[in-house]
Structures are given as C-alpha cells and as structure tokens.
C-alpha cells in the first residue's frame, strides 16, 4: 500500500512541478510500497489510454440525409398555429349556432369555447418550443 | 475554448441569426459530432448505444435550432441536450456494455500484443464497476486526451470536482488491478 501522504502526489505524478517531483522521487527511492503503487498507476494510465484515446463514432451523421424541410422560422410557425386557432373558433361558433340549442347553450358560448381553445393552442405551442430547446 | 472552436461557433451563430438552418446544422455536426459521441459513450459505457443516442441527439439539436436564443454559449447548449438525452437513455434501462474484441483498435493491438486485449477487457470491466460519476470522468478524460477543462465543460462540472473524481477512480482501479493480478499470480 502507498503512504497516505504521497497518494495524491503519486496519482498526479506526471503533473508535478520540478520541486514536487524531486521530493517524491526522494521518497520513492526509500519506499517499496509507493514504488509499486506508482508502477501500477502508470500501467492503469497506459491501459486507459489504449482503451479510450481518440474514440470516434463509426457511423458518421450525414446532415444532408435530413429530408424534412428546414425548421420553420418562428413567425411562420406562429402564423400556422394562429390559423389553427382561428379555424377552431369559427368551427366552435358554427357548431354552437347549429347544435347549441340541444344543450340550451347561449349563442355566444361557441365563441368563448373557441377563444379558450385558441389560447390553449398558443400556450401549448410555446411550451413545446421551449421544451424542445432544452 | 480553443480559438479555432470559438471561430466555428461564431460562424454557426452567424448562420442562425440569418435563419440559415441547414448551413448552421452542417457546421454543428462537423464541429460537435465526435464530442457528442464521446459524451454519450462516457455516460452509457457502450459504443453501440452511444452511436444510436448520438444520432438521436443530433436530430434533437436540428429541431431545436430555431429556438436557440444565445442565452448560453452554443457548446453549453449542445452539451446540455447531449447530457440529458444520454442520461435518459441510461435511465431507460440500457445496460452497460463492454468493449468487445470486434472493436478494430482492440483487434489490432491484440495482434501486436496478445496479452493486451485480455487486460483491456478486464480493465474495462473494472471501469464499469466504478461509481457513475467516476466512470464518466475517467472515460471522457482519456477520450479527450487528458484535458481536465474539456471534461469539466462536457460534464458541466467544476474543475476541482473533475480532478477529485479522476484521482479517486485511478486509485481505485490501481488498487483493484494490483489485487487481482496478485490473486492471479498466487493461483498459478
């Protein structure tokens, strides 16, 4: 086992200053446990280098394979959502006018329902965009 | 960050400001593909899964590009996506794999030094037994050519913490390696 006072110094042996290394080398000359430990650390270090150094992916990602259209500029994306919201409002109003009497709904219920749905759509859009950015 | 990498990031930012998404993304892939892979590999411990996850990460980056606002550095943003995706893949129960003899580098070295392949597989198994953070730091440190700064950047970890994890990991590996080699000698 290495001497506790020298463990960290041996672990960072290659990064020691000239003065620190001289002090450690002086200790190593007299301590078999620390010499063995340094030898093992060096072997582990070399093996970890062989195992991991320069790891590269074998499959290279080709960005031209992306067939989908470029991400829409935000304004076009927003217009798309606004158009969906407007359609929902109109359909809700039409449905309420056509069938609302069955539920004894007031005439303007469709407009409120449509506006609520539109607000929810826009909020959902913002949440999804924020989450995808993270 | 090295000057060349900073220039590349500035170029990417320029494309993003003008909504040239394809050009920006091509540069992102060129600049960050390997680092994304190494980060995923260090977290997942398995090359195949790291490659699959890297592809997924790059698709996520593509979809999220228009939402990047520059609140953080581009590299910080990319590595954050990569870390989250890799940790999610790890949580989904993908098991830690080991380096196989089909790895081209290992095969080549085995031909030159027959004992090396066996000892590397053994070492890889010891690394897999380390606590998660130590394992990630060790793998990334040697993949990134021993750069403490790069490891700290990729894992979003203070420099001192990186050094502590690395020192503890190497000490543990050295002690186990010696113990197992001593047992192997005694059993001969």
Structural account:
The complex is a heterodimer of chains A (134) and B (188). Chain A is an all-alpha fold and 134 residues long. Helices cover 66% and strands 0% of the residues of chain A. Chain A starts with 6 loop residues before the first helix and ends with a helix. By secondary structure, chain B is an all-alpha fold. At the A-B interface, helix 1, helix 3 and helix 5 of A face helix 2, helix 3, helix 4, helix 6 and helix 7 of B.
The average pLDDT value of chain A, as a whole number, equals 77
How far do the termini of chain A sit from each other? 47 Å
Counting helices, strands and paired strands, the structural category of chain A is mainly alpha
What is the quaternary state of this protein? heterodimer
Helix share, percent of chain A: 55-70%
The major β-sheet of chain A equals:
none
Our estimate of the beta-strand percent of chain A is under 5%
Low-confidence stretches of chain B: 95-114
- How would you sum up the global shape of chain A? rod-shaped
Q: Return Rg of chain A in Å.
A: 35 Å
Q: Order of SSEs of chain B, N→C?
A: HHHHHHHHH
What amount of the residues of chain B lies in strands? under 5%
